[in-house]
Protein 1
Amino acid sequence: VEALMHTRYDFSCALPTLKMWLNHDEVVLVDVREEGEQPLVNEFPHIKIPLGSLGEKAAAFQGQRVVLFCKSGARSEKGAAMLRQQGIDALHIVLDLNDKDSLKALVHER
């Protein structure tokens, strides 16, 4: 019971925090959706690693802050939990991938 009380289950990242990190190159942003999923996202810099492949690429993120996203937040939350179990500073964020203006605003200051 004691371990459960100290376990962090919410690995979410706030939008203003993500914007600040992106504008200062302090984060690696990862799209964990499968190849070909719509909508395509090219409004900000990120890399694509489907959730099923994330575990085998986890070592590449050691020492970095990682924020994952997908369409609904379910896969990105699972991915963040998996990376955190491996000692990686990982969070997830829920983004409206259809709201292109908001996505562009993430890196407007760059």
Note: The beta strands are 28-31, 47-48, 65-69, 89-92.
Protein 2
Amino acid sequence: SEDVLVVGTEEFSFCALRLGKMLKQTVHNVSVQCTTQSPILPSGDKNYIINSRTHLESLYNPERTTYLYQLRHYDTAIILTDSDNPSENAVKQLTDEIDAEKIFFVKWRN
């Protein structure tokens, strides 16, 4: 079965969680993550929950760093954001760090 990652950006997490829940009905291997401003330290200890951390430029403010944890390979990744004007560098950095065969970038507009 397909392995899908849904990523919400910073506070825009609700839509990612809802989409992940909907996808679970047809795709069983669904992971949902959100970029965060919280810099949790990873550990090499196999009993520790966080073993890898990715530093990213925020899609909302290029002066801010955000993080994703425990990334691995996925068949498909769907990134959801409500950022008005993400920099090309931030988008490229995020999509480059996600190891997926297909990546969809969805920009929510009110």
Note: The two ends are 34 Å apart (CA to CA).
Protein 3
Amino acid sequence: PGNRMHLNGTGLEVKGSAQPIVEDNDVSHNHQVGVCIGGTARGEFKDNVFCENLGPNVKVGMSAMPLLFSNTISGGQSHGIVFSGSAKGTLLKNRIQHNTLAQVYIYMYI
């Protein structure tokens, strides 16, 4: 089993050129974003639970390019996943459901 990141501001923040492997964690009930991935970060996020956070469960911004594989992303008070700026990423076999706003929200700054 992984880690529990509960009742924080943001559960997990990945910045710069980081390339972590984040697997089998529970990131839930945080007061802001579940996981925030920015900069030019890449990394692999597999078999995690991102649920019931007040902000987006997963936020990908700037030029980040993560792989999100087989995660549960649900019950958020905002969007399930947000992609913004020039962020890219790969979503494979995730369960994204029951978020208050869009399940996946993609926008670009103008």
Note: The chain has a mean pLDDT of 96.
